[in-house]
Amino acid sequence: MGERRRDRPVNLGVVSRLVRKRHLVAEEFVYLRGRTSRVAKVTLPSPSLFVNFWSPERSKSVYASLEHFLADVVAILRDEVAELVRLGASYIQIDAPHYALLLAPETRAFYESQGWTLDQWLSRGIELDNAVMAGFADVTFAIHLCRGNQEGRWLVEGDYEPIARPIFQRIGATRLLLEYDDDRSGSFAPLRHVPDDKIVVLGLISTKRLQMEASEDLIRRIMQASCFVPLERLALSPQCGFASSIVGNDLSIDDERRKLERVCEIARRIWT
């Protein structure tokens, strides 16, 4: 009597109304916004990072090409930015670890195997990033070039020089967050490519190591960077987040607080 008939048609209109789209980070932003009077920064992935979820063999039944796939990714991310702006967000960071991975032959090989050359990854990737950011005049956008962080791991070494000019000069973001917590990131010389309308945030304080960076060493390195970008367009931060995923790094809450206090100490000594 109460058994559902298997041949009963499904009302797709009812189903579509029952399905509620959830945004990627909007709920987290609302939570944070309600707990601080400071400007809350929100982070989103760079669209071309999603090539890690594309397969030339398995994906073509849904997407004719990588370009078609990434076009949908851009649309989703632009919708997310629009929702964040509606909710009051004014500072959005694009996380782009794949650009740094282009520096090393062994990791660059994967990206080139997807069909684009190094130059194409840079030009097309920047174009996609800019498409996500375009049209939101009241938002400060940042881009973070990550070299690995989860569980303290290090993904790639190498100077920024091979990717610096196109990214620094053509990306729409006005904040460049660069990891410089390790000598493996190379020198500050690539900063000479940074145009006058951009601020460089030097990631000099490690979120991977318990060891606290010495204040005088940090000041010395900031002064070295100022040979390429003036102090008024430099800033200081940890090299990455303290927890890139649920796994996180081997630092306690107190360790993290001390690292952030060191950021504030150096900022006061240099910029106030």
Task: Explain this structure.
The protein has one domain (37-271): TIM Barrel (Alpha-Beta Barrel). It contains nine helices and six strands. It has a six-stranded parallel β-sheet. It has 272 residues and is of the alpha/beta class. The longest helix has 21 residues, at 66-86. The protein has helices at 12-18, 26-33, 66-86, 97-101, 105-113, 118-133, 161-170, 215-225, 253-271, and strands at 41-45, 91-95, 140-145, 175-179, 199-205, 234-238. Residues 1-18 have low confidence and may be disordered. The radius of gyration is 21 Å and the shape is globular. 39% of the residues lie in helices and 12% in strands.
Brief summary of the model shown:
By secondary structure, the protein is of the alpha/beta class. The chain contains nine helices and six strands.
CATH architecture: Alpha-Beta Barrel
Top CATH class: Alpha Beta
Largest sheet: 6 strands, parallel
Order of strands in the sheet with most strands: 1-2-3-4-5-6
First-to-last CA distance? 78 Å
Q: Provide the low-confidence segments as ranges.
A: 1-18
Provide the succession of SSEs.
HHEHEHHHEHEEHEH
Structural class: alpha/beta
The count of DSSP E runs of length 2 or more, i.e. the number of strands, is 6
Rg (C-alpha, Å): 21 Å
What's the shape?
Answer: globular
